[in-house]
Amino acid sequence: MASARQLPVNMSLLRLQDKHIVKAIWEGNERVICPRRHAIWIANHVNELDARIMNILSAAGFTHILKASNMEIKHQLVTALVERWRVETHTFHLPLGESTITLEDIALQLWLPIEGHAVTGISSGPLTCFCQQLLGDVPPENSVKGNKIKLSWLNNTFRQLPHDATYQVIEQYARAYMLMIIGSIMMPDTSASMVHLMYLPLLADLQNVSQYSWASVVLSCLYRALDHGTRTDQDNIGGCMILLQCWAWERITCISPQLLQVTEEDISSGSVFPLAKRWCRTT
């Protein structure tokens, strides 16, 4: 057990200390928290995706995070950060002071839009009724739980866009891909196997998808995931772990891996910005 000298001088603000994982660690019960991720087909075949789909994803601002989706997440790094996260302040308590992830970090790391409409809407009711209209298909009952659908159904149903697809079908595939990106990369929950249909109506007009503040909702979901991760009964964590890891490497340079040298060709091709792409190029 840690000595009293390792505790904060003033514990009055840390009112949730008894429920925090560090209390269990100080008593000798350590853990390694496991980020949950779902292997989606499009993440492993980004360079093979149909150009018609990629154009829509690019206009919506979803391609950058998709291209960084295969980054290996370091479980020990995530565990160390969660242990230093405080629910009371939504900051990491580090030896040199407090720090946290901001909207600016999301803009630099993932290039998701900050300004725009709030990502909010219908979250209850029979949301599966939107599937036929916006996806062109309805998931079977065994792929639906409440208002969530299995990512595996999306993964298997919308894999290869037909060559003779109409523009309506192209849009349906693009919405399915966006749902997979949202549910498995941007805002995965601790199951990492389902995505909520509340996001589907927001994708109805693909011209307006980029007008939403996706950065804000990704940040709030990450904060919530870190809050839950500090509980002693949690052994996995949701949220955008790519953002968390890239932020740590960018801001805490003593723990960051060595990067490959950046050339003029890399800069002109856009392979090193946003910064998450650069952190995919480590030695």
From TrEMBL:
Coiled coil residues, start to end: none
Gene Ontology terms describing biological process: meristem maintenance
Database matches in InterPro entries: AminoTfrase-like_pln_mobile (IPR019557), MAIN-like (IPR044824)
Aminotransferase-like plant mobile domain segment(s): 61-280
One Pfam family it belongs to: PMD
Record's protein name: Aminotransferase-like plant mobile domain-containing protein
Protein source organism: Vigna angularis var. angularis
